[in-house]
Amino acid sequence: MDADLQAHIAFYLTGKRHSPNLLAIDGLKLQPALFAGYRDLTRLRYDFPLVLVKEGPAAVEPLSGLIDAILDKVARGDDGERIRKHVLRLEQEIRTLVAKGTGGTFSTLWDAAAPALAKDNKLMAESLARARANLKVDGEVIDCDASLPYHLLGHAWAITQTQRARKFGDDINRLVLKLSDIIKSDFVNSDAGKSAENLRASFGNGPMDSFDFAAMSRILVKASPKKKPTKSRQKRVQNLLAVLQSQRFFPTSSATAEAPYSFAFDSCSDALKAYRERLPKATELTRAIAMAELEVRGEYSEVKHDALFESFGQNGLDAGELALLPDYLVRINATSLSGAEQSKLNEILAIDLPIKVVVQTDDVIEESPVGHLAFALRSRQLASMAMGINDVFVLQSPAASLYQLRTEIQRGLDYTGPALFSIFSGATKTSGGLPPYLIGAAALEARVFPAFTFDPSAGRDWASRFCLATNPQAEEDWPLREFAYEDEKNQAVSQQLPFTLIDFVACDTRYSTHFSLVPRTHWSETLIPVETALAQPGRGSLDSVPCLTMVDGEDRLQKVIVDEKLIREARRCRSMWNSLQELGGIHNSHAEKLLASERLLWEEKLAAASASASPAAAEPAAGVAAPVAAAEAAPVEAIEQEAERSPDEAYIETARCSTCNECVQFNNKMFAYDGNQQAYIADVNAGTYAQLVEAAENCQVSIIHPGKPRNPNEPGLEELMKRAELFA
Ligand code: SF4
């Protein structure tokens, strides 16, 4: 074995450099090769920056989309091409201003950027002036940065609440008007209403001095309907009016009304507290609306409805009643989500409150206590827990994909129950100055932070509820992208490169020790692509070393070898992605197993039919069908068994296991597969409680229940038990 290969293998196995021909990558400003085309995002037309539209059919539009709409109107005729060029130049200027941190609306940024471009350039000035006259859609311009999830979700939520307030206002005004009419008409029909004084007053000033109001009053009183409004009804209608007119859930035009409540919070605890404090008022208001509707239709019956409304809201408000009122919004950073705050979030999601929670994550790599690199661990736990509750709308996505997911965001905001929006901002402080958009997009490509939605209102099964469609090439382990470059002989070379977890980690300066640069003079065929190493089982034959293709600050191709730890982590990341794919119906092992058995059955039937028509030929077919039936029965049996379990006992909901291999790979003595290739706890004493809790946290479908610790002397039990509560 030559000295270079020996040194490379030593680095691969130990992460230590034993040769002067292996160089540290710190300070070399290397980037994954596929980033080479994205060095300056301001020169690209893409989804960002976004405009948070004040008024318009869409809550948010990309700057490039609004510019295109303006160009559609003005870039016509002989000078169309010139106008297009000038306006696109202005768009680039606005994009640069925003990337440098300049804030403002579309119109103010236009006005800030245009003068410098138009100076000494009459044609440019003319093009921009014509285009500016067509700027009709305006709003705050925001880039993909650390504040994007807060502002974008806040804006979309506020628009949703404004629409709800409009509808509420129309309904309340209608009810108030009709209830007021009832009061007026009750008075007009009363003896007091028909008194001579009231009749005279209602006719106003005029030549009525000779008119006998007393006689008219006598006639009207005599002709009054027998059924007079009861005092109880008058009181009820007056009370309803008072409740409707004094409500603080939506803004009103009344000058005497108290200020409306605020529904946007920075903590789950505060939102929950406000919800509880306001619940009596919410119940009173929804009750008043329900009673008023009956009253104005003349359908309120004291005998039938009094008792019913007496107990209104005693079991809480239902989804339809809550949907009349504003939803709460909580925006928090994942770093503040521990202890009490985490348990309040769990409570919000578990008890079906109309609260939308945005959890922002800025860093998705962390070292776990047992030495793994944990990728998006907390976000995965959070999303798994929320989906496990079954009635929570869940959307997970990097901020870079939020525009693509705008329809899904709206669905989550319109959803009648709780919603969780788990967003990775991409604003990681250790990404060597790469823009958050690129880091977020890289996390999506590398399957580190996949995008998905779980919408309980879409249907009853996973196929209807769970969607992975926003992920690039979702059917692949890693997306493949075209990478084109010129070699040292100036020949064009093009190849397909996957973007893996290793590319993503290579962007983070904290993990540079896992990479070593191999100088060009030491390149050889023993440097194999990372994807080849990932496809091999275990360490492979150790006659080659995985290497990543990167580019330096001058766009020169570089080769960087990777240590084994990262290869292992990339396999774990792929395995977690494979589990998500299964949930999303991609390469679903149950479906594939069923398909294989059906295919076998069909082939056997075909063979039997062609061999002979004897009745015995049917037997193998029945024999094949039996295991399928048994497999279908197994989950029911397993669920029944699980229902009887003690909460102290550690167990796995085996029937729901998606065979992702995560727990079995983690500790194959503690976890094993049964005959259906689904995991169960083989020996609970074959590992620590800490391992059990970590396995539960890493399980994509949250089906591992750690129970209570068995060894009271294990260190850190208090914290472990808190973490285990999520999976009780
Ligand atoms: S139980 Fe184990 S194998 Fe099954 S889904 Fe969970 S982590 Fe994967």
Structure report:
The chain has 728 residues and is α+β, with helices and mostly antiparallel strands. It contains 25 helices and 23 strands. The strands form seven sheets. It has a seven-stranded mixed β-sheet with strand order 5-6-7-11-10-12-13, with helices on both faces. Strands 1, 16, 17, 18 and 19 form a five-stranded mixed β-sheet that branches. It has a three-stranded antiparallel β-sheet with strand order 3-2-4. The radius of gyration is 34 Å and the shape is globular. The model is unreliable at 616-642 (pLDDT under 50).
**Bound small-molecule species:** iron/sulfur cluster
Helix content: 40-55%
How many DSSP E strands?
23
CA radius of gyration is: 34 Å
* Contiguous helical run count: 25
Distance between the first and last residues' Cα: 54 Å
- Quote the average pLDDT: 88
| General shape | globular
What is the structural class? alpha+beta
**Strand arrangement in the largest pleated sheet:** 5-6-7-11-10-12-13
Describe the sheet with the most strands: 7 strands, mixed
Strand content: 5-15%
Q: Uncertain regions: pLDDT < 50 for 5+ in a row? A: 616-642
Fold blueprint:
Elements: H1 3-14, E1 31-32, E2 50-53, E3 60-62, H2 63-74, H3 80-99, H4 106-118, H5 122-132, E4 139-142, H6 148-189, H7 196-203, H8 213-222, H9 231-246, E5 264-265, H10 268-296, H11 302-310, H12 319-322, E6 328-333, H13 339-350, E7 355-361, E8 365-367, E9 373-375, H14 377-389, E10 393-398, H15 406-414, E11 419-424, H16 436-445, E12 452-454, H17 462-465, E13 466-467, E14 480-486, E15 492-498, H18 501-506, E16 515-518, E17 527-529, H19 530-535, E18 545-551, E19 557-562, H20 564-583, H21 589-611, H22 618-643, E20 651-652, H23 662-666, E21 671-673, E22 679-681, H24 689-698, E23 704-705, H25 717-724
Parallel strand pairs: 5-6, 6-7, 7-11, 10-11, 17-18
Antiparallel strand pairs: 1-18, 2-3, 2-4, 8-9, 10-12, 12-13, 14-15, 16-19, 18-19, 20-23, 21-22
The structure holds iron/sulfur cluster.
Iron/sulfur cluster binds near residues 657, 661 and 663.
